[in-house]
Amino acid sequence: NAEELKQFSIDEEKLIENTVKDLKAAGVTCIVSGGKVGDMMLHFANKHGMMVVRLMSKWDVRRLCKSIQATALPSVTTPSPEEIGFCSVVELEEIGDTTVVVS
Question: Long-range CB contacts (< 8 A, 24+ apart) of 65-70?
Answer without folding.
Answer: 67/103, 68/103
